[in-house]
Structure formats: structure tokens, C-alpha cells
Design goal:
heterodimer; A: alpha/beta; Rossmann fold; disordered C terminus; B: Arc Repressor Mutant, subunit A; elongated
């Protein structure tokens, strides 16, 4: 089953992604306690909050990586938390992109192979996938790094490769979890500039988890997660 | 910021007319708050009186006063001392932010709600500054960064205070 065959339902106008009263516990520990948030198509949303507040768990639920114990997750007018793992996996592969704090590049692959990975997994021929991947290197200031492996790159270079990998398949939503967390201020700024410019150019919606206000300032708006809920002020303000 | 010392600093590069000094000051340091001509000339007058600058002869020509000012050794020493000393680190212990939190708690109002509103306002300003940085010149970016880091420091304080509201409420209500 592909990600295009999902249960249909109505959703808010312009809203591409939504959590409705999502709750999730890890064992006895509640991580989300009825978190609700909606993201407009093309919007860059910063999810902020103290450590352990549940912001990454919320991101994982929105991305279909985790399934909430109760509540609902909707994407493009379709409920996704009730899908089978295989269907959610297809959704993540075909419609979503991801960037994490430490890049998480595949060390055995070259930079261009890492970038091409989502295209290859989506069934694109290798030569075409590599060609598409290479087009990102100049754009992200990575000329000449195509054949480097992750161990041969600086943190900032590796994170830009990870960013290219997250965006190469032109996902509808990019999920970025502390994408500058391992970088110094200047490099983090560069990554955020590139991330927001590329996302806006492609019309990609971005859900950005960060605890850094200067990173959140690149977003269109922010929500605060506190004790597993999205604060009422932020929801009421929308 | 000290206008006399800044003008003196600009004169330390080369002698200059009051008009050019004003233009340079506005370009780098004015930022929406240009220096009035009157203040430029009165400041230069005081600096000349104190022996820190030397006014040249009035030059022929129309427009504003055509007099070139040059820095003296006394003025140069003052600039040197000023630039080598740190500014007073301001502890900001009695800010309005702090007062609003304490008073909210004393009056039984929601300090948490106030902090949320303040956080939102800070982040909105940070978004504007980030936009300015993206589209502006290097000088704009540098100034925006300075404000961004200070706003970020406020936000850290806001988050820490939000986490300590319970304890703080017990203290101010006792």
C-alpha cells in the first residue's frame, strides 16, 4: 500500500498536519497528555519547551514514527495514527523528510549516496537519483564533498548533507529535531538559513523542534510544549 | 552610548567636517535615531574647548559650517583609554520584567500567563531581527545579533522563572 491510499476525512482549511488531544506514555511515564496542535501548509512551525516536556515525542507522533495511546493525528485530511506500520512507513518515505540533531548519515555511504537514499528507497534509478542528489551540493555550499564519507566531514558539512537528504525527495513536511543542536552558532545559523530558504522555495511545511530561541526565530510561529501539552496561550492565539 | 567619544573615535581616523561626521555616525551608530546637526556642532565645540579636537579655518563654500576638525593628542589618549576599557556589565536586577512577575504573584494574578505573553513578544521581535539580518548589510546583521543574544538571555530567564514560579510565589506571599 502506498501513502496515497489513506482513510479520508475532512480537516481544517489550509491545515496539513494536526494532533488532536494526543496522549502517550512510556510505561508508567506520561510523555504527552492531550497535546493539540495544527500546522498550516507551507508553514514553518517551531516546537519549543524545556527538556523532557514532550516536544520530540510530539514530533514523532506527528511524523507517524510513534502512535499515541489516545487522540488522533491527521495529515492532509487523513487520519494516520490508525494506519498499520507498513502504511505509516510508506507515508514517511513518500511524503515526509527528516533531519535530526546529529545528521545520522550512513557512514558506509558517500555524501551523495546519503542524499540520494530517499530517492533510491522511493524506487528511482540510481543514475537519476545520484544526479538529483548532486544538484544539492552547490546549493548548500558543499561542492567537492560528493564522495566524502561522514567521518571525513565537519559537523556543519554533515548536517548540510543531512538537510539535503531530508529535502531531496521534495517532501510535503520536513521534520527537524534540534537540527542545529550539535553545531556552533555561526554554522547553526547557516544550516537554518539553508533549511528555511530551501523549504520556502519548495513550499515544504516544516515542524522544527528546538530549545534555542534564535533557531525558533527562523520559524513563522512557535508553540510551547510543557508537561506534555501544548500551552493554551499558543493555541488560543491562532 | 557616548556621543562625544564616538565622534572623537571617528576623528581619530582622519580630520573631518561636522557634516561628514554626522553622516558616518548616523550610518553606523544612529540606526533610526540620527544625530541632530545642533548636537554635532555643540559636541565639537565642547571637545575643542577641552583641547581634544582642533578646529581648522572656515573653508569657503555654501551649506553647513565648513570647518575641518582634527583630533589632538589629548583626544587620542582619551579614545585609546575608552576603547581599551570594558563597559560596565549591567546586572539588570530591577527590570520591569522582574517587577511584573513579582507583582503578579503578590496580587494573585497569573504570572505564568504574563511570562507566556512576554515570551511570545520576545520571539516575535526575534523573528523581525532575523528577517533584518537576512536582508540587511553586515552592519545590520551585527546589530541584530547583539539584540538577538540579549533577547535570548531574557528568554532563558523567563523559562527559568516559569519553572520556579511555585517557589517564588511562596516567598512573595509569605
Amino acid at each position: 500500500m502506498t501513502a496515497d491510499h489513506l482513510p479520508q476525512a475532512a480537516s481544517g482549511d489550509g491545515c496539513i498536519l494536526e494532533a488532536r488531544e494526543a496522549a502517550l506514555s512510556f510505561g508508567e511515564t506520561p510523555a504527552l497528555r492531550g497535546a493539540s496542535v495544527s500546522v498550516a501548509r507551507g508553514e514553518i512551525l517551531a516546537v519549543m519547551g524545556p527538556s523532557g516536556s514532550g516536544k520530540s515525542t510530539l514530533l514523532h507522533c506527528l511524523a507517524g514514527i510513534l502512535v499515541p495511546d489516545s487522540g488522533e493525528i491527521w495529515f492532509a485530511g487523513r487520519r494516520i495514527d490508525t494506519l498499520q506500520e507498513q502504511e505509516r512507513s510508506a507515508l514517511r518515505r513518500d511524503r515526509f523528510g527528516f533531519v535530526f540533531q546529529f545528521g545520522q548519515l550512513v557512514p558506509e555511504l558517500s555524501a551523495e549516496e546519503n542524499v540520494a537514499l530517499p530517492l533510491l528507497l522511493g524506487g528511482m534509478r540510481r543514475t537519476q537519483a545520484i544526479a538529483e542528489a548532486r544538484s544539492w551540493f552547490e546549493r548548500l555550499g558543499l561542492d567537492g564533498m560528493e564522495h566524502h564519507r561522514s567521518g571525513e566531514m565537519s559537523g556543519g558539512q554533515a548536517q548540510r548533507v543531512a538537510l539535503a537528504r531530508g529535502l531531496v525527495a521534495r517532501p510535503e513536511v520536513l521534520f527537524a529535531d534540534e537540527p542545529t543542536g550539535s553545531l556552533d552558532s555561526l554554522t547553526g545559523e547557516l544550516v537554518m538559513e539553508l533549511l528555511t530558504a530551501a523549504a520556502r522555495q519548495q513550499g515544504t511545511t516544516v515542524v522544527l523542534v528546538t530549545h534555542e530561541p534564535r533557531v525558533a526565530a527562523y520559524a513563522d510561529r512557535e508553540v510551547i510544549v510543557r508537561d506534555g501539552t501544548v500551552t493554551a496561550l499558543d493555541r488560543a492565539a491562532r | 552610548m557616548s556621543v562625544p567619544l564616538t565622534l572623537l573615535g571617528l576623528l581619530d581616523r582622519e580630520p573631518s567636517h561636522g557634516y561628514d561626521l554626522k553622516r558616518e555616525y548616523d550610518s553606523y551608530f544612529g540606526r533610526g535615531k540620527p544625530l541632530p546637526f545642533g548636537q554635532v556642532y555643540s559636541t565639537l565645540g565642547r571637545l575643542a574647548r577641552d583641547g581634544k579636537v582642533l578646529p581648522g579655518e572656515v573653508e569657503p563654500g555654501a551649506g553647513p559650517e565648513r570647518k575641518r576638525y582634527a583630533i589632538t593628542e589629548v583626544g587620542r589618549d582619551e579614545v585609546e583609554t575608552w576603547l581599551s576599557q570594558p563597559i560596565e556589565p549591567e546586572p539588570h536586577l530591577q527590570t520591569e520584567l522582574f517587577a511584573k512577575v513579582v507583582l503578579s504573584l503578590m496580587l494573585g494574578r497569573s504570572a505564568e500567563l504574563y511570562l507566556d505573553v512576554q515570551r511570545s513578544a520576545h520571539l516575535q521581535r526575534m523573528r523581525e531581527l532575523t528577517e533584518l539580518k537576512r536582508n540587511g548589510a553586515v552592519v545590520d546583521a551585527l546589530l541584530a545579533d547583539h539584540s538577538l543574544f540579549h533577547l535570548e538571555a531574557d528568554l532563558r530567564w523567563i523559562d527559568l522563572t516559569a519553572a520556579r514560579l511555585g517557589v517564588l510565589a511562596e516567598v512573595v506571599r509569605s
